[in-house]
Design goal:
By secondary structure, this protein is α+β, with helices and mostly antiparallel strands. It is 26% helix and 48% strand. It is globular and about 35 Å long. This is Polyketide cyclase.
Length: 108
């Protein structure tokens, strides 16, 4: 099933199929990502986060729900791959300014 996502969020999920540079380009210069208990701030750290995740696991992410909640865009996505517990539904909480993501928190 395909859903309509805000442009910067859609760009993130499209880029996530590619390389870490493409993912980093979706974020503002001082953006923050929180994932698996770690915080990554700035484009360099975000690029490294994505490189490390891609080297550790192969996965696909298929968004299937999206809501605007208190100014944040909450996307639920089925993530399938070669990691323990796959497949799993993850919640991606985005804050966006203009055409860039300023924060992203990924939770179960």
């Amino acid at each position: 099933m395909s859903i309509k996502l805000p442009k910067p969020v859609d760009a993130y999920f499209v880029a996530d199929r590619g390389d870490s540079e493409a993912v980093a380009q979706c974020f503002a210069e001082d953006a923050v990502v929180k994932d698996e208990g770690h915080t990554y701030q700035g484009l360099s750290a975000i690029k490294q986060w994505k490189e490390d995740a891609s080297q550790q696991y192969t996965y696909t992410s298929e968004p299937f729900a999206c809501e605007d909640k208190d100014g944040r865009i909450i996307v639920t996505s089925k993530v399938t791959g070669n990691f323990p517990g796959s497949p799993v539904d993850l919640h991606y909480s985005f804050s966006v300014e203009g055409d860039k993501i300023v924060s992203l928190e990924i939770t179960l």
